[in-house]
Write a structure and sequence with these properties.
two-stranded antiparallel sheet, mainly alpha, single chain, 2 domains, 3% strand
């Protein structure tokens, strides 16, 4: 909701709760949240570190959907810094993992669009944001379709 400063004020409480629960996934999701807040506040190095940490755990645990979204959020950081080559390498890693996992057809198609754009170093922040938003929506609605030309998602 783009209320990053307000969210940052509540982050300590969320960390404490996750630490009490003690599960690796709870802690990883809070680290991911911390990365989102850092990115929203313009703290790109902190966001990158948090996204990489979450990405490693999601990959190891084979949580493909979460891995895809956090990878795209990491790509947003790299693109914002003009690091197209690193974005391309990230996309190549993602593609290998996605091909080995079962992902809904429409989600895989959207990810393929990102990977193709990253490989040709034409990926944009706008496209990447649209795909992240689509993945969040499609997770609960697998019938949702990504329309790359217009940016509109249709049912």
């Amino acid at each position: 909701m783009d209320r990053f400063a307000e969210a940052e004020l509540k982050l300590r409480e969320v960390w404490e709760l996750a630490e009490r629960l003690g599960g690796e996934l709870d802690l990883t999701r809070v680290a991911w949240l911390e990365g989102k807040i850092a990115a929203g506040l313009g703290h790109l190095s902190a966001a990158q570190a948090a996204f990489e940490q979450a990405r490693d755990v999601f990959h190891r645990r084979e949580l493909t959907w979460d891995y895809a979204v956090v990878s795209l959020e990491l790509a947003l950081i790299l693109l914002a810094q003009g690091r197209a080559g690193e974005t391309r390498r990230l996309a190549e890693e993602m593609l290998l993992i996605f091909q080995a996992q079962k992902i809904e057809r429409e989600a895989l198609a959207a990810l393929q669009i990102f990977c193709d754009a990253a490989r040709s170093e034409t990926a944009t922040i706008e496209l990447t944001r649209r795909i992240v938003k689509f993945l969040y929506q499609a997770r609960h609605n697998p019938e949702l379709r990504f329309e790359p030309e217009t940016g509109a998602e249709a049912r």
